[in-house]
Amino acid sequence: MLSFYRNKWEAYVGIPQHEASNLLEKVMKTRNIPFTKASNPPIYIYDSNHDQIIYKAKDLEISIIYVSADPLTRFFSTLLGTRGHLKGISYLSITFTSESKLELAKILTDFYHNCPQEPWRIMGHPRFQFAFLLQLINKRKWKKACNHIYLKESF
Q1: In DSSP terms, which residues pair with 29 in a beta bridge?
Q2: Which domain of life does this protein belong to (predicted)?
Q3: Measuring CA to CA, which of 2, 17, 57, 146 is 20 to 30 A from 84?
Q4: How far is 150 from 144, CA to CA, in rounded Å?
């Protein structure tokens, strides 16, 4: 979740990948931002079955990654037959330039306001059930990115 890159923003979203994708498309169409949509193979550490959804706009690349559970949890839940109970959340990984920072802040703010729940709420997911510190860090990142005071500052 923590990124050491200057032009990268990453955070979890407490909704499934397809909902996050639909919401992002709605926001980008509302803002009249032209984009292309593609997919990449899944990142095994997050989930082995769902491809990444990639949105490319001018100076922005937004990856929506499906997160179900870690490989060990997936293994045991498959053995126990409870894998169907592991609902997924999303992980946003966004690369941007200094010129697109303000546009990204507006997209994230619209995403936040149109999300059916606060996007940083991830406690319902079994992987994050007791990850209080992670949720606080996630909330701080969302608040900083969406707060109008920070629109011109670096996030």
Answers
A1: none
A2: Bacteria
A3: 2
A4: 6
3-state secondary structure 2-63: CCCCCCEEEEEECCCHHHHHHHHHHHHHHCCCCCEEEEECCCCCCCCCCCEEEEEECCEEEE
* Domains in the chain: boundaries: 8-150
pLDDT digit string (tens) for 13-60? 988 899 999 999 999 999 999 999 999 888 767 777 788 999 999 889
Please say whether the beta carbons of 105 and 146 come within 8 A.
Answer: yes
Is 3.40.50 the CATH number for 8-150?
no
> What is the rounded CA–CA span in Å between residue 13 and residue 99?
25
User: Are the C-beta atoms of 16 and 71 separated by less than 8 Å?
Assistant: no
The residue assigned the tokens 């095994």 is 44
